[in-house]
Amino acid sequence: MRLTLLLLSLVLLAPTLLQAGDFPVADEVIIEKSARELHLLNNGKIFRTFKIALGIRPEGDKKKEGDFKTPEGRYLLDLRNPDSDYYLSIRVSYPSATDRREADENGLDPGGSIMIHGQPNVPSRSETYYRTQDWTNGCIAVSNSDMIDIWLMTGDNTPIEIRP
Fold this sequence. Notes:
By secondary structure, the protein is α+β, with helices and mostly antiparallel strands. The protein is built from four helices and eight strands, in the order αβββββαβαβαβ. It has a single domain, classed as L,D-transpeptidase catalytic domain-like (Beta Barrel). It has an eight-stranded mixed sheet with strand order 3-2-1-8-4-5-6-7, with helices on one face. The protein starts with a helix and ends with a strand.
């Protein structure tokens, strides 16, 4: 608990403690679902790669609420939540207008609340499970330490592309 509070304090205070040149900042994020990797890019070059877990039905594009798929396409990282049920979270701007239109045409609810997040604050499974399985409802999950790095190395409205 103490360590969690210390890490969260560092995350929240980091912008005042660090200078702009102290760490790289991504101008784009790419998710490769098939490789289970999240890449941070700056000027078109990957500078960090993280292992990820996806929705429990990872193949294919998200089409509706409850399909347990991670969406595919271009979005933005548009909202940060330091008080998430998971260790930090950054929202992906899914569904886009196109996603909503396609869902409406098929009489479906496209769902939402797709996030990049850390591990559950109250785990119901083993650490090994979260590290080795696709376990989310459609989000992109990383380790807590990786989530701190992603939080610090992305800004508001960073473009994200989620690829098959």
